[in-house]
Amino acid sequence: CGEHGGDPSTIEFCHNIGLDYVSCSPFRVPIARLAAAQAAIKAKK
């Protein structure tokens, strides 16, 4: 439970539909933060 929240494609999907929060296990936080930043940059293009 919650492991989908750390998946980069899930984070991009959540960003695209307007969600601003995902939950993931602690070891996936760095990956999730990077994916969130990449999704935000990609959305601005």
Automatic annotation (TrEMBL):
Stored PANTHER family: PHOSPHOENOLPYRUVATE DIKINASE-RELATED, PYRUVATE, PHOSPHATE DIKINASE 1, CHLOROPLASTIC
Organism: Anaerotalea alkaliphila
MF-aspect GO terms: pyruvate, phosphate dikinase activity
InterPro entries in alphabetical order: PEP_util_C (IPR000121), Pyruvate_phosphate_dikinase (IPR010121), Pyrv/PenolPyrv_kinase-like_dom (IPR015813), Pyrv_kinase-like_dom_sf (IPR040442)
Gene3D superfamilies linked: Phosphoenolpyruvate-binding domains
SUPFAM superfamilies assigned: Phosphoenolpyruvate/pyruvate domain
Residue ranges occupied by any PEP-utilising enzyme C-terminal domain in the UniProt entry: 1-40
Protein name: Pyruvate, phosphate dikinase
